[in-house]
Amino acid sequence: MVLVCKTGGAGDDERWKSELRRLMPDLEIRDWPDTGDPADVEFVLLFASAPGLFDGMTGLRAVLSAGAGVDGFVGDLPEGVPAARLVDPWMQTAMAAWVVHAVLHFSRNMPAYAAQQARGVWRERFEEHFEPRRVGILGCGEIGRRTGRALADLGFRVAGWTRTPRDLGELENLHGAAGLNALLDASEFLVCLLPLTPETDGLLDAGRLARLPEGAFFVNASRGRIVVQKDLLAALDSGRLGGAWLDVADPEPLPPGDPLWRHPGVWITPHVAGVTNPVTGAALVAENIRRARAGEPLTDPVDRNRGY
Ligand code: NAP
Questions:
Q1: Does ligand 1 lie within 6 Å of residue 308's CB atom?
Q2: Contacts of 221 (CB under 8 A, 6+ apart)
Q3: Is the CB of 135 under 6 A from ligand 1?
Q4: Is the CB of 68 under 6 A from ligand 1?
Q5: Quick check: CB of 197 below 6 Å from ligand 1?
Q6: 30 catalytic, yes or no?
Q7: Fold match, 2-88+276-294 / 89-268
């Protein structure tokens, strides 16, 4: 049983391999690009594709993602081979914690207090918001729901935007084009947790950002390309947006000269909001390998037509 491993960008390779070997001692793991005879390969574990990666893999049973997002390889999937996302509660909790931190940073005036501290100023900024503040989550799937619940527990009023209508429990659900406008119009904090697909690529342009309430904050933890970065910068420069926290950028790494780096309203982290945990991840991957070998459907299948 041969698996090709190309997890770069989603967890430490060596940790992935040692966990998979521990769980499946009969698994032979080959590092890409040293894949030997591609006809031997039954499984590929990856985060991002590469030219020719699947060439000659005539015995491929399943493609397994090392991350929650599959935009790095979904376009290259061989016909007829099932693929699975990594849907890991550990990662969902990590993502929720990162987003909560970013939203609280803005909602509790941390940028202003940091500026005061730099000048040795002790001055209370009394909260003027006695109504629940409104968060809109673009993409309310596995990570969006977990994040939305965490924010609702902290007193925020949360709405989640999805492609199809969903029952999100205590969270309001909006969907489709009309739902997007309603969500943007109301969101003091806009959180992006959408997958990158042909439909979401460049979704947040100048027109959509202009719908947000004056001084709204933007938090992006999914993929940089979903927001048109020059339009985001213009919205920040004009003061229309009060600030942004970006865990993702287009391109990555963000070039050293990019004006976002030095923008006073912008905080940047290097795609670390929900780093893959190879220990919990390997258990999920092992289960899908078992299923594929038994001829059972994979958990968390990728829909290549939707792109996520
Ligand atoms: P998921 O469970 O597949 O959820 C995706 C959500 O987006 C679903 O609610 C889906 O709607 C919605 N959606 C997709 N296309 C849409 C469209 N065109 N219009 C409206 N809604 C749309 O994915 P997930 O596990 O929550 O992960 C989300 C993303 O987070 C990943 O794709 C990845 O890019 C990102 N991520 C980032 C990090 C990091 O470290 N920064 C870590 C992990 C994941 P439906 O419910 O109707 O299907």
A1: yes
A2: 95, 98, 99, 102, 191, 192, 193, 247, 248, 273, 274
A3: no
A4: yes
A5: yes
A6: no
A7: yes
The question of whether 223 is a catalytic residue gets the answer: yes
The domain ranges of the chain are 2-88+276-294, 89-268
Query: 61, 133, 163, 223: which is the annotated catalytic residue?
Result: 223
pLDDT in tens, the chain (308 residues): 999 999 987 988 899 999 999 999 999 999 999 999 999 999 999 999 999 999 999 999 999 999 999 999 999 999 999 999 999 999 999 999 999 999 999 999 999 999 999 999 999 987 667 889 999 999 999 999 999 999 999 999 999 999 999 999 999 999 999 999 999 999 999 999 999 999 999 999 999 999 999 999 999 999 999 999 999 999 999 999 999 999 999 999 999 999 999 999 999 999 999 999 999 999 999 999 999 999 999 999 999 999 99
Q: What CATH code would you report for 2-88+276-294?
A: 3.40.50.720
Q: How far apart are CA 123 and CA 112, in angstroms?
A: 10
Please count the CA atoms within 13 angstroms of the CA of 123 that sit on its side-chain side.
Answer: 12
pTM strictly above 0.85? yes
Pocket probe mutation, ligand 1, options 71, 90, 163, max atoms within 8 Å of Cβ: 163
CATH topology of domain 89-268: Rossmann fold (3.40.50)
